[in-house]
Amino acid sequence: MGFPLPMKKPSTNTLAMLGIAVMVPAAAAVASVGASTYRELDRFMSVYERVKGDYVVPVDDKQLIKGAIDGMLSSLDAQSSYYAADDRSTTGTSGQAGIGLTLTVEDGALRVVAPAAGSPAERAGLKSGDFISHINGELVFGVSLTEAVTKLRGAPGSAVALTIARRGRPKPFDVDMVRALPAAQTIGWRVEKDVGILDVNGFNQRTAAELRAAIEAVGRQLGHPPLGYIVDLRSNAGGEFNASVQVADAFLDKGEIVSQRGRDAAEIERANAKKGDFAAGLPIVVLIDEGSAAAAEIVAGALQDNHRALVMGAQSYGMGTIQTAVPLDAGGSIRITTSRYFTPSGKSVDEKGIEPDLPVPQLSDADRPKADPGRFADLRRQIVREAKVDQAILEADTDTDPRFKTTAEELKKQGVTDFQMAYAVKTLERLGGAPTAATPAAARRR
Fold it and tell me: What residues contact 212, with CB distance under 8 A and at least 6 apart?
């Protein structure tokens, strides 16, 4: 027995225009469509007809329908998007350059997740948490993520200007950059006070091999094993999933690294570590911050939950979803979120990100506000030139831990330009290279 239909339902033409297949449905298919669905489609058509008939200038059907689809997907999350069959943003990008930003959309505003290391954006001083109000003088409040990325890309060497709203700044400011192709190297390394520092700037098919080479280079420079390693994942907004699994596996002998879970709770895909720890069981500190996202969070969560590393810094961004490209019968395609990442302990990366074992603020950042002034409503009004951030909030000081009271100016006098890194180095110095139970005797420092 079927469900009772409402008094009025969309016409065949209406359903076809919305991309809904028009055919005689099977009983199961009919049962899956409730009366409320038809009422909502009828509401949509009422808006469509009103706009079509009364808007100040004639509006093309294609424009209205595309806008409706874009709105539907953007209401789900910033990563889901629609590409029309003739959408040029999906083709012709070979050889184009950018400014090295990972972006998301929050309530219509473009938010910087993180600038890539060595990118034009990093050199220009952009930071995680910045909001972009204008690109080349054009207001981008309300644009989709796809549109924003398209506006930021262009020929290598071409200029782009951004207007930035930042927590702690009373007014937006302008930044000029020159587009460039991304750097090929994803791992940097150095030695500081007998500690090996591994700077992970991205994740691609070469990252695991570069990591192994960096660990070997640290040992060659010292002539003996280091006190430990610092894996710096700050302002690393991700990259390839498989590369993140390989990097986490490089420090693990066993255990789960990450799981993927979709709509069906019974379908869980797990990635597990294989035997072989590149770091030979030596102590590890992982540094994360608000710009650590996606692949970086997979690595931090795996090492944290397997008790292989001390995670230090600030809570990560929380970008733990997987998108699938789905072609449409009527032409074009959608990119839609189909599953989420979970850490070995079962925590969703997307919900809260990774919380550090030891929160350490970046005191040496002279531009860092003493407290978060930025209820998003304040920043959004700032972006559209409606209001300023309340100065009383800017002047509030919520830091209470005496270890973190030193000012940026005082640290600079001490020669400290990166407080989080300095604190991580000092932590490994205090450990004195004490090996974990997994450390082979041959690797222990004499």
Answer: 250, 278
- The lowest-confidence range among 134-138, 204-208, 222-226, 378-382 is 378-382
- Residues 178, 273: Cα–Cα separation, whole Å: 41
C-alpha closest to that of 249 among 219, 282, 273, 220? 273
Distinct helix (H) and strand (E) counts, the chain: 14, 17
Close Cβ partners of 310 (under 8 Å, ≥ 6 residues apart): 283, 284, 285, 286, 357, 358, 427
Whole-model pTM: value is 0.77
For 372-414, write each residue's pLDDT tens digit: 444 444 444 445 443 333 333 334 344 567 778 888 888 888 8
* The listed CATH number (2.30.40.10, 3.90.226.10, 1.10.8.60, 3.40.50.300) that belongs to domain 187-362+418-443: 3.90.226.10
228: left (phi over 0), alpha (psi -120 to 50) or beta: left
Per DSSP, what are the bridge partners of residue 210? none
What is the pLDDT, as a whole number, of residue 434?
Answer: 54
The answer to whether 349 and 292 have CB atoms below 8 angstroms apart is: no
**What would the pLDDT profile of 174-196 be if each residue is shown by its tens digit?**
999 999 988 778 999 999 999 99
